[in-house]
Specification:
Helices cover 27% and strands 24% of the residues. It has 156 residues and is of the alpha+beta class.
């Protein structure tokens, strides 16, 4: 899972989201990366983000897992964005689901933005550098192709 926040104490929101992921049914929270401060993605002026990546073992289908992530976001107070890539209290993205490749109207796995997003790849490489992202390559290889100089690990 990709986790991000830039509103209402982002560090606390990521910690809260990890706790919520640990409580998902038929799932086991494996680990989370460190927290990283990252510049906002997209054209909207807004505060910097705090991002992380978490690993989860689950018996939920990709669709069920995505629905569960949306429920966590709603419980945490996420509202519909006013503009695309705008500020948000919490953002949870299903990045990969094993070796599954899936394209449906409401879900695409792996997440299509992974290969060009340092804010995903840096924390992802911390916990799973050798993971093969279907149709894209290994996380460590993908990280080597992006400029990650603006992604800063936060002190514990």
């Amino acid at each position: 899972m990709g986790l991000g926040s830039n509103l209402d104490d982002p560090r606390a929101r990521i910690t809260e989201a990890c706790a919520a992921l640990a409580g998902l049914p038929n799932s086991r929270f494996v680990r989370a990366s460190s927290l990283y401060r990252t510049p906002p993605f997209g054209p909207v002026a807004q505060p910097e983000f705090v991002n992380a990546v978490a690993a989860l073992l689950t018996q939920l289908s990709p669709q069920e897992l995505l629905a569960a992530l949306k429920q966590v976001e709603a419980r945490m107070g996420r509202t519909a964005p006013i503009v695309r890539w705008g500020p948000r209290r919490i953002d949870l993205d299903l990045l990969v689901y094993g070796d599954v490749s899936l394209e449906e109207p409401d879900i695409t796995v792996p997440h299509p933005g992974i290969p060009e997003r340092a804010f995903v790849l840096v924390p992802f490489a911390e916990i799973a550098p050798d993971l093969l992202v279907p149709r894209a390559g290994r996380v460590s290889m993908l990280l080597g192709r992006v400029d990650s100089s603006a992604v800063t690990r936060l002190a514990e």
